[in-house]
């Protein structure tokens, strides 16, 4: 039986969902399925029965057009989701007896390395909408990790609770919930970003780079769509409204240039900041120095800046583990990269690391 968490909000496992999809429910009107596959065939493969469905829509990662979350992405150019562009974000369908239920399904595996953050906005919005129209069951396979992580995030956002308090509150309804450690870390980031997934936030940028590093270490080929655009090229970018604008029109964006030939090699938005001397897993600094990323002491202690991988980094695009970073125009040495990490002069380990020596670059505005 599903457990009641809040009015019109339940948590459960796959059996709970299967029963409602087969027999209907007097109370539940909406289902949020969080399984390794978004397809309804997951149920038939699991227990051998068919569930009638009628598709409402399928939304892929990176699809623009009014979806929550994607609006924020268009404004800041280099800020990207860590999900692959062709991956399904969610599907929405009518399901069950007389197609009376509305089911949203997101494909998410119960693994520490799985990217939970990028699904939160759509899941939490769906829960909100569903509770206005009826009651919603959030379920995964066991009802322990994935569904619990999403409901924890929901309680955090709606009740402004810390990760710990939200999880504790959920345990009052269902004592055995236990999101995996990777999800707990991501929920902490969600809290530190102010209960939203902000792609321009340094916390998210570091997370995105870590996801990229994990996938490189698993031997997956990193598609160049995952790399930042080359800020030295006069590329046209299409905004969400479909209007074209060029990078040159964006005024007073801080930019890093090759000291020798002045080619633009990185924009401020490409920089993945760290706090001098602190370990890569620490996010505590945001509380102390929020918005103060150009702190004088940073300049003093760190002899390098670290950026996301960019498309002018030929050796990176070719898949090397480590190597030199040379200017795409004059070929002078700018820095070094290593997917396994580099230690900054301040002592912090940056993993993976795409490092530009401050002595080789100038900062100015575009
Ligand atoms: Zn440093
Ligand atoms: Zn150069």
TrEMBL record:
Keywords on record: Hydrolase, Protein phosphatase
Active site: 140
Molecular-function annotations in GO: protein tyrosine phosphatase activity; protein tyrosine/serine/threonine phosphatase activity
Ranges for domain Tyrosine-protein phosphatase: 1-196
Enzyme class: hydrolase
PROSITE patterns reported for this sequence: TYR_PHOSPHATASE_1 (PS00383), TYR_PHOSPHATASE_2 (PS50056), TYR_PHOSPHATASE_DUAL (PS50054)
Leader sequence segment: none
One Pfam family of this chain: DSPc
Domain Tyrosine specific protein phosphatases, chain residue ranges per copy: 117-172
Enzyme Commission (EC) number: 3.1.3.48
Family, per entry: Belongs to the protein-tyrosine phosphatase family. Non-receptor class dual specificity subfamily.
Protein name according to UniProt: protein-tyrosine-phosphatase
Organism whose genome encodes this protein: Liquidambar formosana
Species lineage: Eukaryota, Viridiplantae, Streptophyta, Embryophyta, Tracheophyta
């Amino acid at each position: 039986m599903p457990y009641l968490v809040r009015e019109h909000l339940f948590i459960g496992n796959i059996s709970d969902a299967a029963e409602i999809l087969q027999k209907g429910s007097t109370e539940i009107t909406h289902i949020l399925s969080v399984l390794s596959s978004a397809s309804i065939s997951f149920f038939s493969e699991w227990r051998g029965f068919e569930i009638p469905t009628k598709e409402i829509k399928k939304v892929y990662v990176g699809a623009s057009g009014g979806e929550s979350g994607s609006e924020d992405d268009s404004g800041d150019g280099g800020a990207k989701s860590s999900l692959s562009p062709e991956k399904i974000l969610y599907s929405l369908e009518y399901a069950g007896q007389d197609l009376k239920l509305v089911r949203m399904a997101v494909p998410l595996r119960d693994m520490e390395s799985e990217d939970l953050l990028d699904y939160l906005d759509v899941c939490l919005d769906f829960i909100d909408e569903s509770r206005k129209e009826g009651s919603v069951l959030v379920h995964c396979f066991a009802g322990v990790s994935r569904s619990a992580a999403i409901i924890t995030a929901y309680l955090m956002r709606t009740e402004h609770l810390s990760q710990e308090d939200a999880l504790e509150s959920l345990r009052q309804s269902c004592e055995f919930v236990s999101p995996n450690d990777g999800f707990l870390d991501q929920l902490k980031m969600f809290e530190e970003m102010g209960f939203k997934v902000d792609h321009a936030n340094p916390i998210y940028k570091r997370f995105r780079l870590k996801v990229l590093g994990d996938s490189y270490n698993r031997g997956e080929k990193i598609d160049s769509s995952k790399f930042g655009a080359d800020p030295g090229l006069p590329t046209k970018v299409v905004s969400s409204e479909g209007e074209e604008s060029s990078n040159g029109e964006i005024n007073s964006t801080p930019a890093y240039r090759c000291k020798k030939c002045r080619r633009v090699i990185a924009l401020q938005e490409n920089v993945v900041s760290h706090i001098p001397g602190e370990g890569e897993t620490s996010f505590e600094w945001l509380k102390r120095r929020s918005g103060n990323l150009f702190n004088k002491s940073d300049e003093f202690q760190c002899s390098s800046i670290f950026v996301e991988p960019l498309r002018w980094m030929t050796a990176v695009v070719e898949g090397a583990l480590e190597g030199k970073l040379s200017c795409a125009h004059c070929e002078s040495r700018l820095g070094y990269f290593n997917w396994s990490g580099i230690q900054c002069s301040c002592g912090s380990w940056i993993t993976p690391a795409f490092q530009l020596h401050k002595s080789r670059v100038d900062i100015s505005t575009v």
